[in-house]
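Reply to dn_fold:

You asked what the input looked like. This is it:
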Amino acid sequence: MITTDMIDRDQLVDLRTVRVNTDLPKRERLLDYKRQIKTPNCYKIGKYVVCLSFSDTGLSAQEVFGDLARSKAGC
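and this is what came back:
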């Protein structure tokens, strides 16, 4: 797993600079986004580094975020 301390921030693309051409077909938009962002699983937004990773738990993102929200709310 990649952690933010392993990343050279200067090599990351700032998501705020990425522009999606909505006139392109869906597949071409995705390819253009990937070309611009370079590493879709690790980028920055201003001073924040965002690294995405996935685990094979069988749970959907919605279920995981729901569990997280309930745990923070004390439910």
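The chain has a mean pLDDT of 89.
Hope that clears it up.
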